[in-house]
Amino acid sequence: MASLTTDLAPLLLGVLLAATGAGKAFGRQVAGQAAGTVLVRVLNDGRRATRVLRSTGAVELVVAAGLLAAPTTTVPGIAAAALGVGFLGYLGYARATAPESSCGCTARSDGPITWRAFVRAGLVVVGGAAAAGARTPWWTQGVRHPSASLAFLVVTTAVLAAVSSDLDHLWLVPLRRTRLRIFGHPLVPGRDEEVPVAASVELLERSLAWVAAAPVVRSGLIDHWEADGWRFLQFAGVHDPDGAARPVTVLFAVDPRATKDTTDRPAVRVTLVDDRTDEPVAVDLLA
Amino acid sequence: MTGRNGIDRRRLLTSAALGGATIVGASALGGLDAEAAFAAPMPSLDPAISRSSFVDGRVGRIKGSTLDVVEADGTHRLIRLTNATSVWKLETVTAEAIETGDGLYARGVEMPDGSVAADAVWVNIVNLYVTVRGIERTRLHLSHGRTTLVGNIVDKRTTASFRGGALTSNLSQLKIGHHAQVLGAWRPADDSVDIARISVGH
Fold this sequence. Notes:
Low-confidence stretches of chain A: none
CATH class of the largest domain in chain B: Mainly Beta
Shape of chain B: globular
Distance between the termini of chain A: 89 Å
Radius of gyration of chain B: 20 Å
CATH superfamily of the largest domain in chain B: Nucleic acid-binding proteins
Distance between the termini of chain B: 40 Å
Number of helices of chain B: 4
Largest sheet of chain B: 5 strands, mixed, barrel
Low-confidence stretches of chain B: 21-50
Order of helices and strands of chain B: HEHHHEEEEEEEEEEEEE
Order of helices and strands of chain A: HHHHHHHHHHHEEEEE
CATH architecture of the largest domain in chain B: Beta Barrel
Mean pLDDT of chain A: 85
Number of helices of chain A: 11
Number of domains of chain B: 2
Oligomer: heterodimer
Number of strands of chain B: 14
Radius of gyration of chain A: 32 Å
C-alpha cells in the first residue's frame, strides 16, 4: 500500500499542479486576481505581481511535466515539495500581514485565505515528498493493481476537491440541497411568531403619521418597547413652532401585530414630549 | 437600568403617549390615502438637512461620548454622540455597543470646532447582493461574486422579506439558489455578517 501511494503520488500531484499552473500561467483574469493578493503590496506594482503569479504558474507546469513524465526520478518530487513549502510560507505571510487579501492559489479562486488553502499547500509538500520516493512509474503501477489504484485516486481526488473552494458548486451545494430535502428546512417558524420591530418601523414609515411628523423627526429609531397593547417607537426630534427650536422626543405607538401585509392604513399614535420639561407638547401635526 | 433608555423614562413616555396622543389613522382621517397626504403642502426644507455631513471610517478611540474616527485616507474626525443620536448595530442599540475597531458611518451636523454632532450612526453596516448557497439552523452560507461568506441568523433580530412582503422573522421560505439582498452588521472577529434583513425576490 505504501508503495502504491508513493508510486501514484506523481500522477496526482502532476495533474493538480498542471491544472493550477495552467490557470495561473495562461488564465485571462490573472491580472485582476493578482491585484487582490499580498504580492501587490510586497512588489509595489500590479504588473510585477501578475508576472510573478504567471511565472509561478510556469514553474508549476514544469514540475508537473517532470512528475508525470519522469515519476521515478527524485528531482521533480523534491521540486514539488519545495513549491509546497514556498506556498505555505507565502500563505502564512499573507495571512499574518493582510488577512483579507486573496490567496491567488488557483486560477479561479479570488477568495480570502482560509484553512483550506493551508491544507492544500500542506498536501503539496506531503505529495512532493511521497513522489520523491516513487520507485515504479505510475502507469506500470496502474496496470499492475488497477482496482487499488483507482480506489486510491478516487479517495485522494475527493480529498483534494474538499479542500478546493473552487469546486464547492459541484458537490457541496448539491449536498446541502439534498440534506434539506431529507431532513427538512431547518428554519421552521415558531408557534407564535412575533412581528419584528423592523416590520413595525417599516409599517410606520409608510404611514400618514410618519409623513406628518417627518419635519420634526431628526433621528433613526432610538428605542422601542411594548406596553398596554401598543408597541412604542421612540425617535428624537426638534419642534420649532415659532422660531424657538426645542428638543423633543417623538413617540409613535402602533399595533404590535400589524404589518404592511395586514393593514394599509395603520392606526398610529403620535406624541411629542418636550425633552426639557418631559411634558407632552400640544401640536396638531396634520394642521 | 436608568438613563435615556431607562425603564423609568419609558414609563413616563408611555403614560404621556397614552394620555393625550393624536391618533393618526384610518379612523381619524376617513378616506384619506397616501396620495392625498402627498398632495398636502410640503414642509419647508429643513436647514439642518442641507448642512448634514457624513463621516465614514473606523473607530480608533472612544472617549466618553466622543468617537475618534479614522477615515480611509487617514484623516481623524471626532464624532459626538448626544441623547438624540440613534445608533444602529444590527438593531437599535445604545452608544455603549460601539467598540474600537468598528466600522462606522455617521450622519450629523458639523460643529464650529470641526467635530460632527451625530444624528444617526450605523456601525459595521453592510449591504450585499448574494446568492444563498446553504441553509443551517443558525447560519446561511452565501456567495457574493466569487467570495463566500457566512451570514449568521440572530434570534429575534434577523428578518426576511419575500417578494415585497412585510418583514417577518419566519425564514422558512428561504431556498438554496435564491438571489437576495442582505443588510447586516459585519462581525470583525470572524469576518461573518449578522443578518438584519434578507430580501428575496424584490
